[in-house]
């Protein structure tokens, strides 16, 4: 993976036009995520229904292209899924960005999120990709503030 | 004309010879690109002369200092104490007792805070720092404030990143016990008017600490001429290894400082009832120090002196002027830190490209820079930015390095276009 691949067109596109980039008023779950090292800072909002499905998910905030694109793709990916499914994806995503899961060999539920598979080679950037996911996981675990440092 | 020859037109330095002193400059960075090292404010590269001195100590010297009666220990002691004399001479301190070896700048400031500070600062006393301090010159004083109830005053800066001297003057009062300021800002490159600051502090009887971490590799520092009370710096930003640094303090002040760490080497005698402390400088250097580090620091000082600060300053000024001119023409790029008196540090942000993405994309071209808040978060808040990308130069850099930086910035902007 070259650095150009780190900034594939899909990532640039999501960075420029992030999906679900808005606030949800009175969400059932929300959390604030910080990456103190970089200054990446975002909020994740979710509406989870009685059956445990994620009816809506959105985010706001500011950060680098990797963190913003990752947040954008995360919201697209988990919208409509159940909380358990979202947690399973978080689990796989987390292992993938740490280099513990190889999407070409290992079974996974990541879909298009494998675009971030090479990021483990850039340790300084792993937290950028993982921030939104940790924040979503924190929201589901009723933690108000998530710091990735 | 090749790049090296072109450089010779601007400075007197023999670039080919100088660059060959630094083995790392021959290596490749990511994707097999030639290394363009522009992260000198984080740490400087190490010339062969320093590496050889450190290697020789551990390969053939190895011994601990001050205690063995054997030949090798005496030799190591001579080299270590010789390094202290080299440092003394380098910053023109009066005597070697005023040179305390520490692990670096951060340790040196903490030593002052926890020894001098605890003894001399009490509730209601005031300490003045500036808005452009590194966290290492903020947090130790906040910790002292927690302990003592003293007051920490912050001198503001203007939009160019220059200290507001009128505001500083009004903050220094008879209640001020210490003015602790950065000599050269690691984030902005601002060189502070330390002479004026010291004069203002002395008027009210305040002590002055200068954080010279970003200064000593670039310009001559004379502590007697400055008349500062403390001056601190790190070896690794002066072409030596990490793990060694210096606290300079005026003898009368150091003599009044209680030991901050207890242990071996800092005592005259120990019984279970009473311990008598050693004299300076050993009293403030408990435990086995970075012996090889100090020997390497002396070699680094020798190396720098051999090149000469006139040549170093001329080369760095040329690089800063050249780089500033080129990046100023890049649309959407804004330089953070435009002080009139400025070291060869170029911090910038680019519209639509986060500093971390810029850092990664420069890295893809082999250009090593720092991206982040540079341990100056209050300063980033002052400029309402999360971070900057920072290129910082040293005398071994060339205009070709600047060209590579500028080309890589333009390429990064295209990725996000």
**DSSP strand tally of chain A:** 4
Rg of chain B computed from alpha carbons, rounded to a whole number of angstroms? 22 Å
Beta-strand residue percentage of chain A: 15-25%
The CATH architecture designation of the largest domain in chain B is: 3-Layer(aba) Sandwich
Report the order of strands and helices of chain B: HHEHHEHEHEHEHEHEEHEEHHEEHEEHEH
Number of helices of chain B: 15
- What's the CATH class label of chain A? Alpha Beta
Number of DSSP E strands of chain B: 15
| Structural class by SSE content of chain B | alpha/beta
CATH class of the largest domain in chain B: Alpha Beta
Strand order of the largest sheet of chain B: 2-8-7-6-5-3-4
| β-sheet strand percentage of chain B | 15-25%
CATH topology of the largest domain in chain B: Aspartate Aminotransferase, domain 2
Which pair of chains has the greatest number of interface residues, and how are they split between the two chains? Answer: A-B, 22 and 18 residues
- Gross morphology of chain B is globular
Give the SSE string of chain A. Answer: HHEEEHHHE
**Continuous helix count of chain A:** 5
Detailed description of the structure:
The complex is a heterodimer of chains A (149) and B (417). Chain A contains 5 helices and 4 strands; from the N terminus they run ααβββαααβ. The radius of gyration of chain A is 14 Å and the shape is globular. Chain A is of the alpha+beta class and 149 residues long. Chain A has a 4-stranded mixed β-sheet with strand order 3-2-1-4, covered by helices on one side. The relative contact order of chain A is 0.22. Chain A has one domain: Alpha-Beta Complex (Sufe protein. Chain: A), CATH 3.90.1010. Chain B has 417 residues and is α/β, with parallel strands linked by helices. Chain B folds into 2 domains: 149 residues, Alpha-Beta Complex (Aspartate Aminotransferase, domain 1), CATH 3.90.1150; 255 residues, Aspartate Aminotransferase, domain 2, CATH 3.40.640. Chain B is 41% helix and 16% strand. In chain B, the strands form 4 sheets. Chain B has a 7-stranded mixed β-sheet with strand order 2-8-7-6-5-3-4, sandwiched between helices. A 4-stranded antiparallel β-sheet of chain B has the order 11-12-15-14, with helices on one face. In chain B, strand 6, helix 9 and strand 7 form a beta-alpha-beta unit. Chain B is globular and about 75 Å long. Chain B starts with a helix and ends with a helix. The mean pLDDT of chain B is 95. Chains A and B meet through helix 1, helix 2 and helix 5 of A and helix 13 of B.
